[in-house]
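So, can you check this one?
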Amino acid sequence: MPWERFLIALLVVGQLGLLVVLAAETGITVDEPSHLLSAHLYWEGRDTLQPGHMPPLINLTAGWVPRLVGLRLPEATDPVWRTNHEWNISQRMIDGMSRAELQRIFFWSRLPLTLFPLLSTLLLWWWGRQLFSPAGGLFSAALFALSPMVLGHGALFKNDLASAFGYLAFWYSAWRYWERPDAGGAARWGVALVLAVLAKISMLILIPMAFVLLAIRELTWRPLRPALSLSRILLVGVVLYGGIVLAWQADLTPIPAAELDSWQTSPAIPSWISQIVKTASWIPLPPRFWHGAVEMVRSNGEHGAVYLMGQIFPEGHPLYFVTALALKVPVAMQLAIGLGLCVYAFRVARRRAGARDLFWAVPGLFYVSLASLSNLQLGIRLIAPAWPFLLLWAGPLATLRGRWRIAGILLPAALVAWSGWRTAVHYPHYISHFNLWAGGPQNGLRYLSDSNIDWGQDLRFLAEYVTRNDIRKIRLAYFGMDDPYNYLTDERLETLPAPWSDDLAKGERFVPERGYYAVSANLLTGQYFAPKYRNYFAGFRESEPVGRAGYSIFIYRIP
């Protein structure tokens, strides 16, 4: 339909334009320098830095850009290279670059990664129109494209939206294959599985799921042809294996026995995980693939403490992501999802739903459930793969017929307009977005921190605040990798070390002198510190700030 093609084109072009602007204006976030460094080294064939748990899809997509725009690395003689750690080296890299240089390099390097939110929008539309109707597909796609979470994290040098697209493509391909198994469908499913695994290491769980679903479908398909079924299953396996080997640059060096033994003795790695790796290591696979899998498990074991509803939970909380969804997803989208589920439930009651619906109705809930059992709870971005599926639930609302036909037109239109208006109101602070239930982003720190609010992105707004209010000097406790002195001179800025270690701390609780202070939200809540320092900045936390830089840096005046 011409109107449908026009609307989806308009939606994607608008989304792209906004992502490009955000790629230029959003400050450098915590993870980006290390990811950029590793991606650059990947294209030079020397990505051997620790921790090595970032899968290669974003490297493949955007790692070629830094060379073109002149990324400068620390000198080869710099002692920082001896650490062999991407965080240390990337921090030195950032310190040696001007603000204009950083903005230019990160802007151009971020642009290729905007491909993934755009592809997710298109695939949501395409799948939704097949599941529901053209209007249903457009409705889900519009909600996704207008989501502050998608816009805030889709413009960064990160893998969150790449993993969302990979997960969506996997389940769409599974749905298509379930409809009619054939060799082309098996190959497409294999490619989608490769994309998912290359986007996020935790997607390894999809590998056994894919082969179980393949086996079930082949056994239930009539006429049953064992040889043909086996060939299709093998095709998925060959595509998967070839994709992994090629993406990790065909390095099939065996893992040293000493390294396997060290994984088995690590308290952060469950023994059954290390045993699986040791047993499966006979398969020729790139060592960086195994390192990534093991480091993901290690990170899950080591990252425990999270801030939720004003409290710190040392080992995470099972309701963390549910709470984040309740407080960060815009109310209009929540209503769309709820109403769509009501329409779908009516269809289920009328027996108009089948097993094929499980492929779109369950994956979002499945992913949130698994993430809720993990200790790695650093923000709603970690469940980005679930976002498209939650918005697919809204699709049935646009399919109402009969006496509800007008409601099926007006309600989706009103909800999309509301979503667009709320997104416009909060521009450009989408990382820190909180919905009306939470009282907006200014109240977000009452409930959550981490990358829900503060990912080091608001130094530009701090410099604007200092200049606008003619503050002669401000002391800054900053959470992030950007260089504050690229925004304020040392005459107007003094940095305060956070208590990451005993030698940096000034007692167990910081006592400020008179003057102006700026403190990052993640330092106020203190969940990243050792237990004895978690109230280090409590004096600020218990006070009312005189202002904010964006929504992630709180500004105080001590009289």
